[in-house]
Structures
1.
Amino acid sequence: MPELETVVREIAEEMRARPDRGEVASYIPELARADANAFGIAVVDREGRVVVGGDAEAAFSIQSISKVFTLTLALGKIGDRLWRRVGREPSGSPFNSIVQLENEHGIPRNPFINAGAIAVTDVILSGHQPRDTLGEILRFLQFLAEDPAIGIDEAVAASEQRTGFRNRALANYMKSFNVLENPVDFTLGVYFHHCAIAMSCRQLAMAGRFLAHNGRNPATGFSVVSPERARRINAIMLTCGHYDGSGEFAYRVGLPGKSGVGGGILAVAPGKASIAVWSPGLDASGNSHLGRIALERLTQRMGWSIFG
Amino acid sequence: MPELETVVREIAEEMRARPDRGEVASYIPELARADANAFGIAVVDREGRVVVGGDAEAAFSIQSISKVFTLTLALGKIGDRLWRRVGREPSGSPFNSIVQLENEHGIPRNPFINAGAIAVTDVILSGHQPRDTLGEILRFLQFLAEDPAIGIDEAVAASEQRTGFRNRALANYMKSFNVLENPVDFTLGVYFHHCAIAMSCRQLAMAGRFLAHNGRNPATGFSVVSPERARRINAIMLTCGHYDGSGEFAYRVGLPGKSGVGGGILAVAPGKASIAVWSPGLDASGNSHLGRIALERLTQRMGWSIFG
Amino acid sequence: MPELETVVREIAEEMRARPDRGEVASYIPELARADANAFGIAVVDREGRVVVGGDAEAAFSIQSISKVFTLTLALGKIGDRLWRRVGREPSGSPFNSIVQLENEHGIPRNPFINAGAIAVTDVILSGHQPRDTLGEILRFLQFLAEDPAIGIDEAVAASEQRTGFRNRALANYMKSFNVLENPVDFTLGVYFHHCAIAMSCRQLAMAGRFLAHNGRNPATGFSVVSPERARRINAIMLTCGHYDGSGEFAYRVGLPGKSGVGGGILAVAPGKASIAVWSPGLDASGNSHLGRIALERLTQRMGWSIFG
Amino acid sequence: MPELETVVREIAEEMRARPDRGEVASYIPELARADANAFGIAVVDREGRVVVGGDAEAAFSIQSISKVFTLTLALGKIGDRLWRRVGREPSGSPFNSIVQLENEHGIPRNPFINAGAIAVTDVILSGHQPRDTLGEILRFLQFLAEDPAIGIDEAVAASEQRTGFRNRALANYMKSFNVLENPVDFTLGVYFHHCAIAMSCRQLAMAGRFLAHNGRNPATGFSVVSPERARRINAIMLTCGHYDGSGEFAYRVGLPGKSGVGGGILAVAPGKASIAVWSPGLDASGNSHLGRIALERLTQRMGWSIFG
């Protein structure tokens, strides 16, 4: 087995040099300003060691990666009753598709497509003030990452508030089926803001540790969720974490993972490591192009695939 | 860790006694004759030990489980060129849906829905005689299971030949997009027959060993496929192996698996075991009801989930 | 040919007595208060004679019938450029479907499904204040019907403003494709209000005269639109005027017509008459149950079908 | 009103000269051999006068126009029971779409899309021999056109038999829902052959007379169908006769019509004339490009639109 440090360093070097970098997301205007040349990686192993490469300390918009943490919070609040309001099957559709909602009575296919994550946000909000709910999500991430400096990029949130018509369509559509309980603007306000949380690869890999270690922080032993729940969240990440590229990610990388259109990916090697990568250029399915390749290299060289 | 023998015995006893048994498939008339009370399980561990419970020696129609082995053969024949003719994303649709084909120019979403498996069969056939191709598939299974007694249930094959109008629709539809190269009747003939192969849980678990052990027979060390290919087949089984219930299976069982409407499931615990279960009653997604529950028990008690 | 007065009276009597009355729309709460026993009919012939039956003077919510008049206004404003923003094919989908929008880049299929009518409203609004635009639509109807008493039922408008989540979804969805130019709330405000215009059968039949007579008021000779435009609006009413029941209406009634979920239908017998019927109970496609039957009787007895 | 002879002559001259001629259908190999420069027109008025222009005597493959006549025959056989097996709504889909079938349990939307016409053919076949049924269809056309020379182009039929995989898919799909009663090959055999009937514009316009004149041959007074049935067939032609271009045809031409991929269109001006045009180049919806333009000219100049 090669040294993790060596592997991470070589991956960062390769990714830095590659000419193919994907397309930076433009559908949220503020995200279009990201640097296509950026690449970062951070790996936290079971001993709590953090190995980083490239722009691992630079904060980026985590976007849909936040959905892993809001799902965790919503399950903590209402447990399996959550599954009455959102499914857990891959959708076979793009991240912002509304067709599936019409065919299935407004119930989103899974918590990681936009519609599903909006429904999950509505569960966390549940009658509270948007500001309070957003604070709760932010504190949860700060706690998991052991870093109180994590915050929201207000420019990104405002940009999405102004232009997020498709998410507004999804939310109103679900509201028409009574899948959302709170005022649409409240739910969307929280949703847009938690997607606009900015984190570095280091912070993100730290926050994901509990998923790699049976629901616990391996350093402190503190339990975040039960082992069964950690496994199940990982399962949903594997089948649904990359929108309509989830099969491809499983095939090539072989780890549970969740991507965001900001170019980040959080991946989990159960029992071994929590991993975050970031590169703003996306592939056709809306997932980080170099991020996926970097993770493919990492699992191959470290033998971390969950598939053997 | 409990004894595997104890776990398997207790699962067989529980499954034998449960009143909820699902619905026996009726869409192939011959399959409707299966005994809803049957339940079998067989586990082959890395040392080659076979632990069985219930009706583990009774032969049943493996149906779509054959698709794992035809995929393996097709990859052996043309490698990654296969992916020009079939995708590897979950479909978000029932096993026999044709909608997806119309939306995606006749290219099936993955090799485990019916359309995809027909396209894979067409690749194996590739200009040969149906009889010869079918012989090749059968010999491959006999070799993997180390059992020359494995054969085809001709009554099931004939029943499907007479009534398989929906599969005939899928095949002709793909033919109209030039996704199939052979005469439709040739390809379907091979497809209907390899789905009609009859195997016991013991034979099936034996045949699946290479997927659990890096592509090798762990007893003999003989390599069937490369470690990478074994991992990738497992990944496709995880994301696509249970039709529109694949997310549910990953969530509850946490193993790569492939089900068939005959009530069988082949599951793979990488590095640990190859597992086959059988109970003819199906759930709403067309997967064995008790088979899935049995596998859920097994992975929980043995700690075999790939998700931590 | 029977006397029109006799036919209208007998139709009103039959409809008053029938036990099958359809289901009053409940999706806008305020509409659910309509009296299922109501039935009205008004026919204006080419000489300008008005023949009425039943509750022909009672005002009801015209709902989607307003779309005929907003289409006329929008064509008056921008002519055939309108067809860049909305199609003119039957949709094969329910009135509030969003699936078609996703498949066709946010361009609604025709101006008579909800999405299409919202896009048409956006064209009329075109940078003006909602209040002014609404005034323009209202004055157009008052002018056509020669009745300044026509107004908006504010309770219905407010009810739809509060609950119209699905229309809000459609509008935001189109906005995400830049099909709408004005703020979504402005466009929807005008849309909800023009759907809430209340008219009697008499007023509606008067307003529809220009469509029956080559674009002119047959009494005054005053031209509203060109003969070609009148024909074309009639053609769209025939193919698209009854949502997913348009084929059925053409088959049974044989006249261009537009229905609303308030239970009204405006129908046009070219060269012969403008007709309005009203009965609040709807059929499965959302069209007035007795209204359609009444029109079927009328065209059969008067020989007014456009199909021979 | 201009002279019909003058109008027809001028239309034939304009169409002969236009450079835009559409694309000759290639999906049936044999049809691809048609001459893109051909154009023919024939009009039979209520006095039985036949006015022709261009290549009005040249035989072409009527293809889907045959569906008007098979619908008439099927209604003659089982009356309104036909509507249990096929709908009468526009489909909003291309002529050979299978998506709609999956969504609606194998019941085709209307008798003029391919699936619907195959179901109608199955009704006519109804246990008879394909050869006899085909003879019946052919004799019906010979009788209507008063021309025993009408026959089948066997090369076209054979070409479609060899390559009609998509129609084969549609038929098998419906068979899986028990919408077809006869062996799929029998029904398709009759379908492929009646689509391959070859007729000239003159013959086709003669055959369509009964639809323009209340179900009767205006010359002999002989009744083919009841007036109501003639109106209803016209209504279905109007809403469904041009696949996903039916709205466009109604909007521009304003007559009931049925097109075929051979480039022919049969149109009906109720009470006035039966019209056939032919030009092999098709538009994007699969309808004759110049045929539609020619009919638009004709109705405008003669004032024959049914819409006023």
Note: The domain at 4-63+198-302 of chain B is CATH 3.40.710.10 (Beta-lactamase).
2.
Amino acid sequence: MVFIINAFQPTRESIPPPNVSYQQKQTSGLPTHLHPLNPFPFILRAATVYPDKLALAHPDVEYPTFFTYRIWAQRIQNLAYALIEAGIQPGDRVAVLAPNSPMIADAHYGILAARAIITPINTRLTPPEVAYILEHSGSKLLLIDRGLMQLVQGLKIPFIVNNDTGRIGDPYEDFLSAGRRFSAEKGWAGLDVELDEGAGAVLCYTSGTTGRPKGVLTTLRGSYLAAIANVVEGQISKDSTYLWWASSLAYPHPLSEGNVLLNNRILPMFHAAGWTFPWANVFAFATQITMRTVDYSQIWKHFLNSGVTHYCGAPTVQIGIVNNPAARPLPRSISAIIAGAAPTAHLIGELEKKGIQPVHVYGLTYTYGPFTRCYDQPSWALLSLEERAKLMARQGQSFATAQEVRVVYPPKSEDDQEVVDVPKDGKTVGEVATRGNIVMKEYFRDPEATRKAFRGGYFHSGDLAVMHPDGVIAIMDRSKDIIISGGENASSLAIEQELASHPHVLEVSVVARSHVKWGERPMAFVTLRQEHVSAWKGKHNVFGDELKRYARTRLPGFACPEWVEVVEELPKTSTGKILKTNLRTIAAKL
Amino acid sequence: MVFIINAFQPTRESIPPPNVSYQQKQTSGLPTHLHPLNPFPFILRAATVYPDKLALAHPDVEYPTFFTYRIWAQRIQNLAYALIEAGIQPGDRVAVLAPNSPMIADAHYGILAARAIITPINTRLTPPEVAYILEHSGSKLLLIDRGLMQLVQGLKIPFIVNNDTGRIGDPYEDFLSAGRRFSAEKGWAGLDVELDEGAGAVLCYTSGTTGRPKGVLTTLRGSYLAAIANVVEGQISKDSTYLWWASSLAYPHPLSEGNVLLNNRILPMFHAAGWTFPWANVFAFATQITMRTVDYSQIWKHFLNSGVTHYCGAPTVQIGIVNNPAARPLPRSISAIIAGAAPTAHLIGELEKKGIQPVHVYGLTYTYGPFTRCYDQPSWALLSLEERAKLMARQGQSFATAQEVRVVYPPKSEDDQEVVDVPKDGKTVGEVATRGNIVMKEYFRDPEATRKAFRGGYFHSGDLAVMHPDGVIAIMDRSKDIIISGGENASSLAIEQELASHPHVLEVSVVARSHVKWGERPMAFVTLRQEHVSAWKGKHNVFGDELKRYARTRLPGFACPEWVEVVEELPKTSTGKILKTNLRTIAAKL
């Protein structure tokens, strides 16, 4: 680690008393052999075992901050008491609107320590969406980054601004310091332990492509078990360093066009509670580096100099990483946890050349992030990169603490509660379903939506997939992304995977476009690799024909794209997913 | 892995049907977001993800057996149905009396799959002790290794004998084959899921040095969480191979003298359910090798040729390992999980020279095995081996899924329910106490003993320790091992640690012996290192004086041994713990 952390002095109130005890209040109501699962106490154990280890580094800002586990734990205690003093009661929602920063990391612990529920809000949303979430969640308080104030103009919710300085005079620091007054008196043993492990932990709102955002409520038990699964699956340890990044750019931003965001994004802490990684890393005693912005050169600096071992991101972000001029073979291997879409053979090859080991996982906000993983098999070592990539592109099998993943037939009627598996033939398309500890508790204040999603005691994901004979699922599409071409179901994902194998294609997205004869036909939007952009300049039609010919050698007729549009960039959500709705709108207008 | 596993053909009934489904029965009674924690389904996930990976190797016997996850899972299913067909009901106890072997590994899954409780019995016990355990546990059936029949002569319990051949004609194999008839019809979905994660998992009997053995009942939830903790702490993964060994020698044996066993032992599967490692290894998709016997040369063969990465054992066993003529630096590092006593500087140095990384943990049958670990600190790299060993000898801080460990004052009266910590001064001796998910549920059929052990909502271990300022506990002694010398409390453990640093001492044990003037005084029993045995032959008294002089330079007067006895070997329990009761008897007679 190259950080010169001595240059930063945490506030006096961030320093724990000399005889600090990390013992929680005694839980006299519980049997001796039980304690409720809860990820918040991970910080107490880390502060006990590795008090002076760097826990949280926030280096790439005007006022860099560095917190050891001992200091960070004290700040979390201060936050918990400050929240309680501000009137936060058990079960209350506390909203957080912030890019990756120590404050949102604190919030994942301090809010739970106060027995409240953290409501992280996507920084990419519009003011009316933010207002709706604050209203629907009934949040009593908002912790907000100074750069995002324009999202809450005119709203009445009480808030604490974080200037992200870690210095005295920063309103967030003053809030923490105020909390310290009570924490000094009472310490950890003064905080009531949440006895119900089924109590709410996180309330996330899904940024649905249509309709109002829905609140996804998760539990303490689920958060604990999902975090541990991420530690085991990622083999995170005390020698690990996890890199967080995301864009700090918020609405309205010059690079955004209405709702369409042109930058590539990666898993930020505000998205599905960062897939429980804010807890997983602490459980493993790892170090976390938070970057407010996405800056590939800076990312490579951290890869090369800061001991980074783990990060998460969608393939689009991984493409940005391998294509950066600073990219080079790494002195030590890094685990890249890939989700959101399947990595292509080309991407896998490029990552591996740099010493980055891709781990392909699949998950949703409803499942605390990843709940399946494509487990690599020893036999794959004998395969070509392309063959291996085809197997790796599948979404895999259930995660360490997840219950089984199934692919099931759609309901026969509104009231159909039977959950029946499709055959394990790699062909029959069904819906991905699962149940168990790492499934959300409910849609917040929406029993009707919960009932529908939990048909037959299983959570139904809305993702369409096949089940292969080896028990591995492969996502075909979201229900609405299937293209019904001449009566056949064409998977836009399968088409994209074939088109992506063309050597000149950087990224591709396929949507349905209506067709007089066939009902629907696939339309492909593609971006070209940097080195081929100029060659095809002014000849996009010619490339389109070339790609259509290429497709016909690899896909059945009904799945071949009828139209190909070469674009400079694809529209994406804040988490790097391609916004197919926007592409559909464009396709409809053509 | 050098095993030639093709030489072995599992029985026809061990081979799953071609379209096997690993899906359990649907649990319609539970909320969608809950599934009860239970370690048994680990095998279903392993068989799904790595069906053809070697799960269980049993190579060092007349009829070697090798089971992949797919085959092993089928055998477990057969066992579950065979048990149910034999009349085993949910909550019933099924006893197992066996050395490390596939049968006892099966039992850790098959018995739980039948919703029954596994009762592993120490193979070192006498027939009356075994009879008592079978009677007290109310076991309905016994799975017994052919080599241990003399332990149950004349008892009426129904039993299945395992000849440990894995071949047709072996009564245990016939039992499994019978189970297959039902499993073929019903599969995994035919087995009821245990909905209560607080249900019993294992009933172990502690082989107390005095009095009747006590039954320690653990839960499914605790077993699940303790197993995962062992995976995380041990960093076990699909690339790991765990080596089990133990002596198959049973009572009466030519090497035993009454109750005193002269061989060194290590953690066998029957001891505290092998500290949950039978489940931990499967959760991590690791390979397990089972050795019926302890044979250091054979162990080194496995170290060098079988890809071993993990094993557990007391320091006495580790001494046997490093002193074996086959010992040499290993091509890849092995984790040695050490418990039962603190490793000495000499032992740590010898292990590290071979590429064996010692991990010092502390635990009890009541805590599913380890619940604290001595976490190594980065700053230790700068210390001398001796200084580092002193720090590593401490028992550490709480384990991944354990709740906090405390050192507390003894109760002031019979009814004292207050649990008060001793100061963190590294001096004040108190009792080790803990609570939470990895504490036993109860003493089986002994509410009075449970009530006493759970005073004030904490489990009281009976081990005496100090709490260091850094939050690390260091065991001083079992309550009864404290020597009250001239009114001072002398820790026999602390004395042993100092005496063990003498370069000629191999092992040492210190007990109290009554003394006219001082009440009690320490007496040391020592064995000499191989290379010094002949030099001191016939001059044991001279060496005793030399060791007493050595002690006076390192210990306070009241803690110096008044007597030193050089012996050839120290008496030990089946798990390698030195039998101080025997030494006390000898000391009393002198």
Note: Residues 332 and 355 of chain A are 7 Å apart (CA to CA).
